[in-house]
Amino acid sequence: MAVKIRLLRMGKIRNPQYRIVVADSRTKRDGRAIEYVGIYQPKEDPSVIEVKSDRVQHWLSVGAQPSEAVQRILEKTGDWQKFKGEPAPPPLLVAPERADRKAAYEAEAKAAAGLAEAAPARPAKKAAKKAAAPADAAEKTEEQAGATSGEQV
Length: 153
Hints:
By secondary structure, the protein is α+β, with helices and mostly antiparallel strands. 43% of the residues lie in helices and 22% in strands. The protein has a domain of 82 residues: CATH 3.30.1320.10. 14% of the residues are buried. One of its GO terms (biological process) is translation.
Protein backbone atom coordinates (compact mmCIF):
# COMPACT_ATOMS: atom_id res chain seq x y z
CA MET A 1 0.00 0.00 0.00
CA ALA A 2 1.41 3.39 -1.04
CA VAL A 3 1.08 5.90 1.79
CA LYS A 4 1.13 9.66 1.30
CA ILE A 5 1.29 12.58 3.71
CA ARG A 6 -1.00 15.22 2.26
CA LEU A 7 -3.50 17.98 3.00
CA LEU A 8 -7.17 17.37 3.74
CA ARG A 9 -9.18 20.51 3.02
CA MET A 10 -11.65 21.82 5.56
CA GLY A 11 -13.15 25.22 6.26
CA LYS A 12 -15.49 27.46 4.31
CA ILE A 13 -15.44 28.96 0.85
CA ARG A 14 -12.47 31.35 0.55
CA ASN A 15 -11.33 30.38 4.05
CA PRO A 16 -9.37 27.15 3.64
CA GLN A 17 -8.10 25.27 6.64
CA TYR A 18 -6.20 22.06 6.18
CA ARG A 19 -5.35 19.01 8.22
CA ILE A 20 -2.08 17.28 7.47
CA VAL A 21 -2.97 13.61 7.19
CA VAL A 22 -1.39 10.28 6.42
CA ALA A 23 -3.60 8.47 3.90
CA ASP A 24 -3.58 5.75 1.29
CA SER A 25 -2.61 7.32 -2.05
CA ARG A 26 -5.68 5.82 -3.74
CA THR A 27 -8.24 7.58 -1.52
CA LYS A 28 -9.80 10.87 -2.57
CA ARG A 29 -8.48 14.18 -1.25
CA ASP A 30 -11.02 14.57 1.54
CA GLY A 31 -11.46 10.83 2.05
CA ARG A 32 -10.61 8.64 4.99
CA ALA A 33 -7.22 9.13 6.59
CA ILE A 34 -5.00 6.72 8.48
CA GLU A 35 -3.80 9.36 10.95
CA TYR A 36 -4.01 13.11 11.51
CA VAL A 37 -0.55 14.58 12.09
CA GLY A 38 -1.08 18.34 12.02
CA ILE A 39 -2.96 21.45 10.92
CA TYR A 40 -2.28 24.27 8.49
CA GLN A 41 -4.27 27.53 8.33
CA PRO A 42 -2.89 29.74 5.54
CA LYS A 43 -5.28 32.69 5.99
CA GLU A 44 -4.02 33.57 9.48
CA ASP A 45 -1.24 36.12 9.83
CA PRO A 46 1.27 34.54 10.24
CA SER A 47 0.03 31.17 8.97
CA VAL A 48 -0.74 28.62 11.66
CA ILE A 49 1.32 25.44 11.26
CA GLU A 50 1.18 22.75 13.92
CA VAL A 51 2.80 19.39 13.23
CA LYS A 52 3.22 16.32 15.45
CA SER A 53 6.91 15.98 14.71
CA ASP A 54 7.42 12.51 16.17
CA ARG A 55 4.54 11.02 14.14
CA VAL A 56 5.71 12.69 10.92
CA GLN A 57 9.22 11.34 11.50
CA HIS A 58 7.77 7.87 12.02
CA TRP A 59 5.76 7.95 8.79
CA LEU A 60 8.67 9.34 6.78
CA SER A 61 10.94 6.61 8.16
CA VAL A 62 8.56 3.84 7.07
CA GLY A 63 8.34 5.23 3.53
CA ALA A 64 5.39 7.64 3.39
CA GLN A 65 5.82 10.22 0.63
CA PRO A 66 4.79 13.84 1.34
CA SER A 67 2.97 15.83 -1.31
CA GLU A 68 4.73 18.96 -2.60
CA ALA A 69 2.67 21.29 -0.40
CA VAL A 70 3.25 19.17 2.70
CA GLN A 71 6.96 18.94 1.94
CA ARG A 72 7.16 22.76 1.89
CA ILE A 73 5.32 22.90 5.22
CA LEU A 74 7.68 20.31 6.71
CA GLU A 75 10.64 22.35 5.45
CA LYS A 76 9.31 25.40 7.31
CA THR A 77 8.86 23.47 10.55
CA GLY A 78 12.24 21.73 10.21
CA ASP A 79 10.87 18.18 10.13
CA TRP A 80 12.05 17.57 6.58
CA GLN A 81 15.59 18.71 7.42
CA LYS A 82 15.56 16.47 10.52
CA PHE A 83 14.55 13.51 8.33
CA LYS A 84 17.24 14.27 5.72
CA GLY A 85 19.91 15.09 8.35
CA GLU A 86 20.37 18.71 7.26
CA PRO A 87 20.68 21.83 9.46
CA ALA A 88 17.45 23.26 10.88
CA PRO A 89 15.78 26.35 9.36
CA PRO A 90 15.12 29.58 11.30
CA PRO A 91 12.19 29.38 13.74
CA LEU A 92 8.63 30.06 12.60
CA LEU A 93 6.95 33.39 13.21
CA VAL A 94 4.44 33.30 16.02
CA ALA A 95 1.38 35.50 16.29
CA PRO A 96 1.46 37.92 19.24
CA GLU A 97 -0.84 37.20 22.15
CA ARG A 98 -4.25 38.75 21.83
CA ALA A 99 -5.24 41.47 24.26
CA ASP A 100 -7.66 40.39 26.98
CA ARG A 101 -10.93 42.01 25.98
CA LYS A 102 -12.52 41.59 29.39
CA ALA A 103 -9.65 43.42 31.14
CA ALA A 104 -9.78 46.23 28.57
CA TYR A 105 -13.55 46.55 29.04
CA GLU A 106 -13.22 46.71 32.83
CA ALA A 107 -10.51 49.38 32.58
CA GLU A 108 -12.70 51.47 30.26
CA ALA A 109 -15.69 51.04 32.56
CA LYS A 110 -13.68 52.25 35.56
CA ALA A 111 -12.36 55.21 33.59
CA ALA A 112 -15.88 56.14 32.47
CA ALA A 113 -17.16 55.90 36.04
CA GLY A 114 -14.32 58.12 37.23
CA LEU A 115 -12.94 55.51 39.59
CA ALA A 116 -9.54 55.23 37.94
CA GLU A 117 -7.34 57.74 36.21
CA ALA A 118 -6.68 56.21 32.82
CA ALA A 119 -5.93 57.65 29.43
CA PRO A 120 -8.41 56.74 26.71
CA ALA A 121 -7.45 53.67 24.71
CA ARG A 122 -7.77 55.52 21.40
CA PRO A 123 -7.62 59.28 20.98
CA ALA A 124 -10.53 60.71 19.09
CA LYS A 125 -9.23 61.55 15.62
CA LYS A 126 -12.04 63.91 14.68
CA ALA A 127 -11.69 65.91 17.90
CA ALA A 128 -7.94 66.27 17.37
CA LYS A 129 -8.45 67.46 13.79
CA LYS A 130 -11.11 69.98 14.84
CA ALA A 131 -8.88 71.36 17.60
CA ALA A 132 -5.94 71.67 15.23
CA ALA A 133 -8.01 73.38 12.50
CA PRO A 134 -8.87 76.59 14.45
CA ALA A 135 -5.28 76.98 15.62
CA ASP A 136 -4.00 76.64 12.05
CA ALA A 137 -6.58 79.14 10.84
CA ALA A 138 -5.52 81.65 13.51
CA GLU A 139 -1.85 81.32 12.52
CA LYS A 140 -2.69 81.83 8.85
CA THR A 141 -4.72 84.98 9.54
CA GLU A 142 -1.84 86.40 11.62
CA GLU A 143 0.64 85.66 8.82
CA GLN A 144 -1.65 87.22 6.23
CA ALA A 145 -2.15 90.30 8.38
CA GLY A 146 1.63 90.65 8.81
CA ALA A 147 2.22 90.15 5.09
CA THR A 148 -0.35 92.75 4.06
CA SER A 149 0.97 95.33 6.54
CA GLY A 150 4.52 94.69 5.33
CA GLU A 151 3.53 95.27 1.71
CA GLN A 152 1.88 98.61 2.44
CA VAL A 153 4.83 100.08 4.25
